[in-house]
Amino acid sequence: MNRFIQYIIIAAGCTALHACDKELSKPPQFVKVDATAITDQKSAQIALNGVYYRFANVDASTNQISWREHHLPGSMYSGYLGYGLGPMRDEENNHLNSGFAQAIWDEAYKVINAANGVIRGVNALSDASFAGERKKEILGEARFLRAYGHWRLLSFFTQWFDINSSYGLLIRDELSAISNISKKRNDVKSSFEFILQDLEAAAASAPAVNNNIYATKYAAMALKMRVLMMRGQQGDHTEVISLANTIIGSGNYQLENNLKDIFYSKGLSSKEVILGVKPQPGQELSQFNTSVQYYPGVSSIWVARQELKDLLTNDPRGLWMVDRLTDFIEYSPDTYYFCKYIPYGASSTVTSETSYAFRLSEVYLLQAEAMLRSGGNANEARDLIKTVMSKAGITDFTAIDNAISTDALLLQNYLETSRNLVGEDGADYLALLRFPAATIKQLKPSLLTIDQYILPIPSEEFLQNPAIGDQNPGYAK
């Protein structure tokens, strides 16, 4: 590439990152939702659509979805994705002045607050205002979305890995107003309980069948599986196994025969997708979108690290998920074009701009992990892992067959989780953090202390809400 063009691209990338940093430094903005505007089923549905709008993180000024904070942070923290124009401190789990914390925080609370508006407004209406079971269904979907927002915050801003920790969620269960902004954060135990209550209600009331850009009872069950795996208390793993059996046994979903087809051709039409995020009209035409982000057709900003390249050695996915070295290896050595969502040099499409919140592959892998952690049948867990791998084109299962001990098979399950779900809502990072500290250090040497497992609460929150309590350990207010 011509050096002059290279410098132009680098400058553009730095300008884009600076713009992102300016956006991230803005204080949290609580979405204004007028619950009194919900007067009947039609207005309730419009308000619910507004919650989905926030769930998809649509930028009102550009009408584009950005799921960057779902694709990147988890896989960056676990060591597989990076920044192509010079390593970010986040890549080495140094989260002081994190490039993602404010955006994750703001996005989650916008979803939560909008969901609270729907829950309050719909509860105030009589059942007669709705046809059939629609009132219950709307409440079920809204409670799923509120649970999802709180789960995101639980994952990144709390000591979820310690059930006795006081560093839990700042739970928002009311529409935000001046009178209730000041609030203390909960402990971890009650944080889990609150999210699980929402998910139990969602699983009971959300529709069984819905377009897969909207929540269903099965999406609620899939999220509940994630939450229970994180909590890991007595009975949680058994319930995860049961939930997986229910989702798989519903017949609504099936593993895609060729994993690549989900990302390159089928998108949300794949029967494997439990819940996805569809791009807004015309989004695929933008150069600065989810899959491309940057010339020449795949991102030179967000890239695959050598760790992902190595993980996919002798794996068919290595032939399409990770392409050639980037053009900027002098700034970020050993970085490659990350092509999971779009082939190198291709034009973006609606499919390449689609994001995936829940896929059936994750259900299989969580079930396998739950079996192993609860002392269940190791051969059944082994078969689940093999089934998922086979859909990615794997035919050699020697590593799985040779994993005799529970710890060895848990490691293989984690590695497949990383290969299959990298760049998808942090599944690889949460699976990593479920290992003992010594194992985590081996797998990600820069994770030296538990303080690094989570992000700092954005400083603006302490100015707006002095009652929140202490900052997360290892960070200053």
Features:
four-stranded antiparallel sheet, alpha+beta, disordered N terminus, 8 strands, about 475 residues
Any overview of this molecule?
This protein is of the alpha+beta class and 477 residues long. The chain has a domain at 283-338. Helices cover 46% and strands 6% of the residues. It is built from 18 helices and 8 strands. The chain has helices at 3-24, 41-55, 68-71, 73-77, 101-123, 134-157, 188-205, 217-231, 236-249, 259-266, 306-311, 360-373, 378-390, 398-401, 406-421, 427-433, 437-443, 459-464, and strands at residues 58-59, 64-65, 81-83, 273-277, 302-305, 322-325, 335-338, 355-359. Helix 2 packs antiparallel against helix 5, helix 5 (101-123) packs antiparallel against helix 6 (134-157) and helix 9 (236-249) runs antiparallel to helix 12.
